[in-house]
Design a protein that fits this description.
Layout lengths: L2 E4 L5 H4 L4 E3 L3 E5 L14 E5 L5 E7 L4 E8 L8 H15 L9 E6 L8 E6 L2 E6 L2 H5 L1 H11 L5 E5 L15 E5 L6 H5 L2 E4 L2 E4 L15 H10 L4 E5 L5 H8 L4 E6 L2 H14 L6 E5 L2 H10 L4 E6 L11 H17 L1 E11 L6 H15 L3 E8 L17 E7 L1
Parallel strand pairs: 1-4, 9-10, 14-15, 14-17, 15-16, 17-18
Antiparallel strand pairs: 1-3, 2-6, 4-5, 5-6, 7-8, 8-9, 10-11, 12-13, 18-20, 19-20
Helix pairs in contact: 2-4, 6-7, 9-10, 10-11
């Protein structure tokens, strides 16, 4: 096996079980005899040692500032049952927190570093697992991962692989980035179009083939349930609604009117399908395909107001260089929303940008409140749910931030 030797004193983060080895910490790379190239192959499993030859762990080699993502600490090779053991441990956590039950067959099984498998996402929708690799190493191991999921998760019968948007664009990837790893015995195009999954008793059509991420934003499950608690008799606006998760919970919570807005017409079509499935006689839901800023400006011009507004935008900043512009965007969109909330109304506002920390996000929101001149109080500080755990040794895994505000 190829061995990575670190510079003196650069092993301290690994001793604290942080799973990343940065390229600047590497002193030298010793290739094993089988290599024909001058460097490890991207995705190769390598051994990591300190400058004094202490065994630190094994992980996936990759090109970039993060050179190795550690899979196991204190060993020189992975055990034969490594994937089964890690998937089994992750499933046991989901069982222990009560996610796997009759009215909920939708959950995240593997959440990257949070489940000690950096670069890997696995989401479960009924009997189908959707695997997403964020590193070439996980792509190389995709078949072993699929086999482990099939053997350790009782409800899973099919495995779909969807990494077209998550693998490094220029990486030398062998094999398809998208496709079945374990295909259903017999499934038609129509059946795929009509695939349903259950979250807390509500049914959602999941489009893992063309939808964002793995097809659904599981990370807002608990926050959607909180919206349901606040929705009774309220006029609700769900901005950036995607497939309508917050809208369905608001309708079940007894909202008087719910407006769902998204820039994508395909998303709006799915919202209407999901509403019709769960509330076939609903007359109090309207879905509109529109730009968020333009919609809010138009509604304000007409004097439209709401009792409850949800802002769950896509990541405004996907890297550190974009943070300043992202914060301006959060301030602008929150100011527009706060202007349109009736006295005594509620704002649910979120950021899923990992590059934006929670203090910066809060400052942007309160700058928006001050700009509008409204009195605002925090009712809840929200974050990602239990099946998106944060590795205590990897605080960077905390990405979802949310505030529930009372607006006078």
């Amino acid at each position: 096996m190829t061995t990575i030797y670190l510079k003196p004193h650069k092993e301290e983060s690994l001793r604290r079980f942080h799973p990343w080895v940065f390229s600047g910490a590497i002193a030298r790379v010793v290739l094993d005899a089988s290599h024909k190239s001058a460097a490890p192959e991207e995705g190769e499993i390598v051994s990591v040692r300190s400058a004094t030859n202490e065994i630190l762990g094994v992980g996936h080699w990759q090109i970039g500032s993060i050179a190795v993502r550690i899979l196991a600490f204190g060993v020189e090779t992975l055990p034969l049952d490594f994937w089964q053991e890690r998937v089994r441990a992750a499933y046991q956590v989901r069982e222990a927190i009560g996610l796997i039950k009759q009215d909920n067959n939708t959950f995240r099984l593997i959440h990257g570093e949070g489940d000690f498998l950096p670069g890997l996402i696995v989401d479960i929708y009924a009997d189908t697992a959707v695997i997403q690799a964020h590193s070439v190493g996980m792509h190389v191991c995709r078949n072993e991962i699929a086999s482990a999921v099939l053997s350790e998760v009782p409800q899973v019968q099919n495995v779909y692989y969807k990494s077209d948007d998550t693998l490094p664009f220029k990486a030398p990837v062998k094999g398809d980035r998208v496709g079945w790893l374990k295909e259903p015995a017999a499934i038609s195009h129509q059946q795929l179009e009509e695939f349903w999954s259950i979250e807390n008793g509500l049914e959602f059509r999941i489009d893992w083939l063309r939808g964002q991420k793995t097809g659904f934003f599981i990370d807002q499950r608990e926050n959607r349930a909180l919206v349901e608690r606040y929705a009774k008799d309220k006029d609700v606006l769900n901005m950036f609604c995607y497939t309508g998760g917050f809208s369905l919970y608001a309708l079940r919570g007894g909202a008087k009117e719910v407006d769902s807005v998204d820039v994508s017409q395909k998303a709006i079509d799915l919202v209407n399908i999901n509403v019709a499935r769960n509330f076939p006689n609903a007359k109090n839901h309207t879905a509109v395909a529109a730009d968020a800023f333009e919609y809010l400006s138009a509604q304000k011009a007409e004097g439209r107001t709401y009792d409850l507004i949800i802002l769950d935008p896509p990541a405004f900043a996907k890297h550190r260089d974009a943070v300043k512009n992202a914060l301006r965007g959060y301030q602008r969109i929150n100011a527009k929303a706060i202007e349109m909330i009736r006295p005594g109304g509620i704002l649910f506002t979120f950021s899923c940008s990992q590059a934006v920390d929670k203090e910066a996000f809060r400052l942007a929101v309160f700058s928006a409140a001050a700009q509008v001149g409204r009195k605002v109080r925090i009712l809840h500080q929200l974050h990602q749910p239990q099946d998106h755990p944060i590795n205590i040794y990897h605080p960077e895994g905390e990405y979802l931030k949310g505030l529930v505000l009372y607006v006078e």
